[in-house]
Design goal:
Length: about 375
């Protein structure tokens, strides 16, 4: 029996998120996702007159391939996948996982090799197609969120089918503000960080790229970052868990990186290539439904009252020139229940303890986004 919520979500993804048109080709890539959801997407794509193409992936099989990754093998894979991606006008990626730590025992050098070789495929998808990526609710995710399976599924579909059009006016105001800003100053427990965003575009994200969504991102001028940032949101990257990551910057470069966990693995990630020790993204998150971290970056980077400051690759739309196989969205929540904090643009207070204080940004506050005013 089909869940009507699958059809509703498929409608959002093929309609609002990717705006599929008659004759367009859409690549649907599913990782440990129920067949019924893939079928719902195929039917929704056809309803728009689009041609769906599907690939099914399984986490345990991906792990086994990565454990023995060889350059010649992944070069062939990348060549084939890039050729396919170049034929697509849109991409929908659904990423489920029975075990978020499935790749935790993949050797770091094998993981780095595969990511480096496959990067051109991701770059083409991000820069040249209409794309949207989302997680799929699983019991493992419910455990991460410390919810029952049913409670988490209800939460998931509520978040993913938010009226994303309601984000538009507030995001437009924040974009305008960020694009006329030079200096940014972030403060909070363990954080005193300054950098410039002058001359770099700010990009609103309201359901057209990630689901769930709710952020505006830009990038720091590559060599301008100075100071310390402490991230209070636990994270999983390359199948490994990290907590309390702390980074120290000098002239834009990470000169010290520590965490609660595997410091050697942490620094191995930042040593993957020269760009991994520079930052490619700075963003403010404001999804009103997402309040607590759950070690899933597509949710955590949208947490209301958060920012993320991302070592690694910059996006083409907001480009500071940094290039890396790494793109690690590390998150800090600044609401009072997480220690508070302030964000200032050119010396002017923009957000305090996770709440926007400027009148023009009040449409990014939860009361407006949830239709309560």
């Amino acid at each position: 029996m089909n869940d009507s919520r699958f059809d509703q979500l498929a409608g959002v993804l093929t309609g609002f998120s990717t705006s599929l048109k008659k004759g367009e080709r859409v690549f649907i890539e599913a990782f440990d996702v129920p067949d019924a959801m893939v079928i719902a997407l195929i039917r929704a794509a056809r309803a728009h007159g689009a041609f769906p193409y599907v690939q099914i992936n399984r986490g345990r099989i991906t792990r086994e391939l990565l454990r023995g990754a060889e350059a010649v093998q992944y070069a062939t894979t990348a060549k084939l996948e890039l050729a396919r991606m170049k034929h697509m006008q849109a991409y929908i990626g659904l990423r489920g996982s029975d075990n978020i730590f499935e790749t935790s025992d993949v050797p770091a050098d094998r993981m780095s090799l595969a990511m480096k070789i496959m990067r051109p495929v991701q770059n083409w998808r991000v820069d040249q197609t209409k794309w949207v990526v989302l997680r799929w609710p699983t019991p493992a995710m419910a455990q991460q969120a410390q919810m029952s399976t049913e409670q988490f599924e209800d939460f998931y579909f509520r978040v993913c089918t938010l009226d994303y059009a309601r984000l538009t006016p507030g995001m437009a105001a924040l974009k305008k503000l960020m694009e006329r800003t030079d200096r940014v100053h972030l403060t909070g427990p363990g954080t005193d960080l300054q950098f410039s965003i002058k001359g770099i575009a700010a990009i609103p994200c309201g359901g057209l790229r990630n689901i769930p969504d709710g952020e505006v991102f830009t990038a720091p001028v590559r060599n301008s970052v100075e100071g310390t940032v402490s991230y209070n949101t636990p994270t999983v990257y390359q199948g490994v868990s990290f907590a309390n990551v702390k980074l120290v910057f000098r002239q834009g470069r990470i000169v010290e990186a520590t965490c609660q966990g595997d410091n050697k693995r942490l620094n191995a990630i930042f040593d993957a290539d020269p760009g991994a020790r520079y930052v490619g993204e700075f963003a403010l998150g404001f999804n009103p439904h997402i309040l607590q971290p759950m070690r899933d970056i597509l949710f955590d980077e949208k947490i209301a009252g958060s920012f993320h400051f991302t070592p690694g690759q910059a996006y083409e739309e907001a480009d500071n020139g940094n290039r890396s196989q790494v793109h690690w969205d590390l998150v800090c929540i600044q609401r009072p229940d997480y220690g508070g904090g302030e964000i200032r643009f050119d010396g002017k207070l923009v957000r305090k303890d996770g709440r926007f204080v400027l009148p023009e940004l009040q449409k990014l506050e939860p009361a407006y986004l949830l239709g309560r005013r």
